[in-house]
Design a protein that fits this description.
Elements lengths: L7 H8 L1 H19 L10 E2 L10 E2 L3 H7 L3 H34 L3 H11 L6 H12 L5 H8 L14 H26 L3 H9 L4 H12 L1 H12 L7 H7 L7 H4 L2 H11 L3 H29 L7
Antiparallel strand pairs: 1-2
Length: 309
């Protein structure tokens, strides 16, 4: 039977049929929930009317995009979105690497296992819950932080009217929630490094710090680049759940906290225009796709093993 099949693709399909069957549910899930909804992109070019439906609504060309790009809002939210995600990626990668290396150097014991459990716990706490707790810290009159500042004679901060304090707050909150889980991923990669390399370095007189910079970090390069590329895919995502849970619809903070996702969410609730919000989302997706492809191309030229495709 295999000899009769001339097509290389069909031969591979027959030979690995059980592996393809295992992958089939994931493929079907992706098609139904990721690719079929892409048909809705046409709404960005329509004055969409739910009653008329997807194909009978009036086509208006690029008018939905003109509405978005006409003012200065798109520059502000694009800048905020890219800035926050770059800070999240940079600080998250650095902190996760630091935690992973520190815990690996401490060896395997009860303290390390306890620390690992504590580190990944914030990852399983939803942002709305974090937002509820944050009120007790940032409230102007009764907040924990202002109470502490008053007790040491320092001036209080009105967090919910001062937009400039929120970029570092959001970065720290993201670190608290995600760095621990990221460290577990890097720890798994570190465990896979050949121990004989460390033993050889120790025999040659290398210190722990030298082993980290000469062995651990170079061996993690492909993992770091791969995770960076995966993170870059969401660089135009605005972290709606985090920002909206912590800030909400606060107009005082919009200049520093408004991102593409929060803008789309607010526009959908206030204007009700599905066409304009879909146009913004399409802009977000296209630019994010271009960034991932470009970064992957650069990574492939620098190191072929680091590219995703």
């Amino acid at each position: 039977m295999r000899a009769a099949i001339k097509s290389k693709g069909l031969r591979d399909l027959v030979y690995n049929r059980y592996l393809y069957l295992l992958a089939l549910p994931a493929v079907l899930f992706s098609i139904v929930f990721a690719y079929l909804p892409m048909i809705g992109v046409v709404i960005a070019f329509q004055d969409f009317n739910p009653i008329k439906g997807l194909w009978d609504s009036e086509w208006i060309g690029l008018k939905n995009f003109e509405f978005f790009f006409r003012g200065q809002d798109w520059l502000i939210i694009t800048y905020n979105t890219v800035l926050y995600n770059l800070m999240f990626i940079a600080t998250g990668t650095l902190m996760s690497l630091t935690l992973a290396i520190m815990l690996t150097e401490l060896g395997k014991n009860a303290i390390v296992r306890t620390m690992q459990s504590i580190m990944i716990l914030p990852n399983f706490i939803s942002w709305p819950i974090v937002g509820l707790f944050s009120v007790t810290f940032f409230t102007a009159d009764t907040g924990v932080i202002n109470h502490f500042l008053s007790s040491i004679g320092a001036g209080t901060i009105d967090f919910y009217t001062n937009a400039d304090v929120w970029p570092p707050i959001l970065v720290l909150m993201n670190l608290w929630k995600t760095a621990g889980f990221g460290a577990i991923v890097y720890m798994a990669a570190i465990v896979g490094i050949d121990k004989e390399m460390y033993e050889a370095a120790r025999i040659d007189g290398a210190s722990r710090l030298q082993s980290i910079f000469r062995i651990t970090l170079p061996m993690l390069k492909s993992t770091i680049v791969m995770l960076f590329l995966l993170s870059l895919g969401g660089i135009f995502g605005g972290n709606l759940d985090m920002i909206f849970s912590l800030v909400g619809d606060n107009s005082f903070l919009a200049s520093r906290t408004d991102t593409i996702d929060t803008y789309v969410f607010r526009a959908l609730r206030t204007s009700g225009s599905l066409g304009m919000t879909q146009a913004i989302s399409l802009y977000q997706s296209i630019v994010g796709f271009i960034l991932v492809v470009a970064a992957n191309k650069i990574a492939g030229k620098l190191d072929k093993d680091s590219a995703l495709f």
